[in-house]
Amino acid sequence: MLSRPLLRCLAVCGWSVFAFFLPAEAEEPAVDFTVELETVMTHDDGTFLWFHPRAAAVPGGVVMTIQKHLGVSDYFSGLQFMKRSGVDGTWEGPISRPELDWRVLEDGITLSVADVTPGWHEPSGKLIALGCSVRYDEKGKQLDDIQRSHQTVYAVYDPATDQWTPWRVLELPEDGIFDFARNACSQWVVKEDGKLLVPLYVGRSVKEPFSTTVAECRFDGDRLVYERHGDLLRLDVKRGLYEPSLIQQGGRYYLTMRNDERGYVSAGEDGLHFSEPKPWTFDDGADLGSYNTQQHWLAHRDALFLIYTRRGAGNDHIVRHRAPLFMARVDTGSLQVVRASEKVVVPERGAELGNFGANRIDDDRSEE
Fold first, then answer.
1. CA–CA distances in Å: residue 137 to residues 72, 112, 134
2. pLDDT 10s digits, 289-300
3. Closest CA to 149 of 191, 105, 181
4. Please, are residues 202 and 146 in contact by the beta-carbon 8 Å criterion?
5. 233 and 246 in contact (C-beta within 8 Å)?
6. Does the pLDDT at position 301 exceed 90?
7. Which of 78, 160, 293, 311 lies at 20 to 30 Å from 353 by C-alpha?
8. Which residues contact 74 (CB under 8 A, 6 or more apart)?
9. Is there a cis peptide before residue 29, judged by omega within 30 degrees of 0?
10. Is 321 helix (H, G, I), strand (E, B) or coil?
11. pLDDT at residue 8, as a whole number
12. What DSSP line would sit under 187-244, residue for residue?
């Protein structure tokens, strides 16, 4: 029996950003929770949409990172953020800071960031925002014009001073496998010793299938430093395994990974070494139906949950079936989704919901 966790989630729905609340009481095999949606803000002026809302708890409140989608595929502004007091206060923002904004370089090239996920680092008392660097031309096309143009970047927020650091690159080994190395739309984990486990999708170029690995990094409150990385998980299907998200629950670590044809899952004991990736299925053996988009985790002390989109929900009119947003319990032994526990947490209203995030608030509450 779960102890009534409150799961608080955020998702983009067309031009609105929603938070949803899930007071849950669960028994095996069903999960019984109710849903309350909160509209954080609404925007539709025809010039941009708000994308990638992802929230993390800080002392006294919540910080949510967010950025503008500028009408061209994967063309994003610099990062902005919102904040609220407590878990139910009024949202302030979006707030712009020059440290987080994009930079216009020579020849009209713009350097920005994308796919950011924030998380709290308790040992240092800092919030770390992890994402990837992106170079755009004047029309908003992503460029791969220089070596290591696609790298993992981070910025650090101090809630005590309300100050951000500028974006910095996570320096990785010279090995060519890291010439493309992104933490993007990816949940990451802080270990008990304060080190970070940062999932990456890596490759020698965008022309080959990506592999997934997890980098262990130390953080001194200012700088994030790579120390080592684990297994390279490979799949020679379309673009490989990418946009991985990592979670720790019940003494084990779990990875969920995007692939063009279906989602994949893997598990391991130390956060660096993992089992052979397997396609996500329901516990009756049927394919989960989530493909070419990200999935994310919510972990309670007694159960592990997956949030995802999938086919087969009367949603053929939605691009890549990216709505509604589902949540279900994971059978951690078989690494399957328990079909009887599946619930819609954000309904389909004609827009995509695939760009979302999930994060812990405390032992009983999470935010997505």
1. 11, 11, 10
2. 999 999 999 988
3. 181
4. no
5. no
6. no
7. 78
8. 114, 134, 142
9. yes
10. helix
11. 54
12. --EE-TTS-EEEEEEEESSTTS-BEEEEEEEEE-SS-EEEEEE---B---STTBSEEE
Residue at 317: amino acid letter = H
Site of tokens 């610099």? 78
Say whether pTM exceeds 0.85: yes
**Token reading at 308:** 């995802």
How far apart CA 240 and CA 226 sit, in angstroms, is 24
Q: Is the pLDDT of residue 25 over 60?
A: no
Residue 361's pLDDT band (cuts 50, 70, 90): low
The sheet that has 278-279: what strands, in order across it?
242-249, 252-258, 264-268, 278-279
- Confidence check: pLDDT of 23 > 70: no
**Gyration radius from the chain CA atoms:** 19
Tokens 């609220």 identify what position? 84
- Residue in the structure block whose two tokens are 């949409």: 49
Output the six-digit token pair for 121. 């680092």
* 3-class secondary-structure state, position 319: helix
Q: For the chain, how many residues are written?
A: 368
Token duo for residue 292 = 């070419």
What sign has the CA pseudo-torsion 310, 316, 322, 328? negative
State phi, psi for 146 to the nearest 5 degrees: -135, 155
